[in-house]
């Protein structure tokens, strides 16, 4: 868990979440999550029937990858809230970078927390996820 | 959607963590996890989404026998997706996931047994240049543990688009 005396508003943490996203990782997420929507794994259906240029990642895969960056920063079991908007699709071959920025340090009933702004971008610097999180810190 | 029994198991957590690129030993190494504050293996923050595995009627999983599945086989599609089976967690051919929010009331741990109940939330419409008319609908799922305690509240927003999103 982050310590109050070691952080300040404006601090950021970022990491590369995935490089050259493989279709197989999307399949791996489908199997683990149970979301077998063919839009994510079935190139034939997705291009010929649904009209997309290729399969694309589950929004929840991008949120999960971003969550890895987030818990690496705030620690295990520290999150109180984590929410995102899926702003653009993520395609096979994409390289994603996630970033969390501390926007507030405040007191809640059961202790000190930080509010974080989250953004994940692709290799073209296009945002694919924007969001917010709240995490417990040690005071 | 209602799920009577969502068994939170260590091997499922390990597979889920792998799929989101998370090598943190707290998700797969029991000896390591025992020495942490949580005292055992915990679930990653978006793990509750995999409750779909425990929903017997989940529409984005081919049913045994494969009948009615809309993905490709001999033909590019097996059948037409059902129009009214949307919900917050993604969607059918033209349904996409717009937003997802989790609120954590307790740490979710391996060994927990959850129940989940989902209620519809707000719904609204918007015009978009990239995909035509957008119909948003919210669903709120409460996950409770074996002691009846609220562990996670998950709010999903699904969007039905008029056509495939231009990239």
Please mark out the parts of chain A with pLDDT under 50 across 5 or more consecutive residues, or reply none. Answer: none
CATH architecture of chain B: Roll
Following the backbone from N to C, one meets helices and strands of chain B in this order, namely EHHEEEE
Helix percentage of chain A: 25-40%
How would you describe the shape of chain B? globular
Contiguous helical run count of chain B: 2
Order of strands, widest sheet of chain A? 1-3-4-5-2
Mean pLDDT of chain B: 89
Query: Can you list the strand order of the major beta sheet of chain B?
Result: 1-3-4-5-2
Number of domains of chain A: 1
CATH topology of chain A: Thiol Ester Dehydrase, Chain A
What is the structural class of chain A? alpha+beta
Biggest beta sheet summary of chain B: 5 strands, antiparallel
Biggest β-sheet description of chain A: 5 strands, antiparallel
CATH class of chain A, named Alpha Beta
Biggest interface reads:
A-B, 48 and 52 residues
- The coarse overall form of chain A would be elongated
Low-pLDDT segments, ≥5 res of chain B: 83-93
Topology, please?
The complex is a heterodimer of chains A (139) and B (167).
Chain A: E1 12-18, H1 23-33, H2 38-41, H3 43-49, H4 59-74, E2 79-86, E3 96-108, E4 111-121, E5 127-136
Antiparallel strand pairs in A: 1-3, 2-5, 3-4, 4-5
Chain B: E1 2-7, H1 10-19, H2 30-34, E2 95-104, E3 113-128, E4 132-144, E5 150-161
Antiparallel strand pairs in B: 1-3, 2-5, 3-4, 4-5
């Amino acid at each position: 868990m982050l310590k109050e005396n070691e952080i300040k508003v404006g601090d950021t943490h970022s990491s590369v979440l995935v490089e050259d996203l493989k279709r197989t990782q999307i399949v791996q997420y489908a199997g683990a999550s149970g979301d077998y929507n063919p839009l994510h794994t079935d190139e034939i259906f997705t291009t010929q029937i649904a009209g997309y240029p290729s399969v694309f990642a589950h929004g929840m895969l991008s949120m999960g990858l971003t969550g890895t960056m987030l818990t690496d920063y705030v620690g295990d079991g520290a999150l109180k809230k984590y929410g995102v908007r899926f702003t653009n699709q993520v395609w096979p071959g994409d390289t994603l970078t996630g970033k969390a920025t501390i926007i507030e340090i405040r007191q809640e009933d059961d202790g000190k927390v930080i509010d974080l702004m989250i953004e994940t971008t692709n290799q073209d610097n296009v945002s694919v996820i924007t969001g917010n999180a709240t995490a417990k810190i040690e005071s | 959607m209602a799920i009577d029994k969502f068994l939170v198991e260590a091997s499922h957590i390990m597979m889920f963590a792998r799929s989101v690129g998370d090598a943190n030993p707290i998700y797969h190494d029991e000896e390591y996890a025992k020495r942490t504050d949580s005292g055992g293996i915990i679930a990653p923050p978006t793990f509750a989404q995999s409750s779909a595995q425990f929903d017997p009627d989940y529409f984005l999983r081919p049913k045994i026998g494969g009948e009615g599945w809309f993905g490709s086989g001999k033909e590019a599609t097996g059948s037409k997706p059902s129009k009214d089976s949307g919900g917050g967690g993604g969607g059918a051919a033209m349904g996409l996931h717009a937003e997802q929010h989790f609120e954590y009331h307790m740490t979710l741990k391996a060994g927990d047994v959850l129940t989940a109940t989902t209620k519809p939330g707000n719904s609204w419409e918007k015009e978009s240049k990239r995909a035509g008319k957008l119909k948003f609908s919210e669903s709120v799922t409460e996950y409770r543990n074996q002691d009846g305690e609220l562990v996670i509240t998950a709010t999903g927003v699904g969007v039905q688009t008029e056509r495939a999103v231009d990239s």
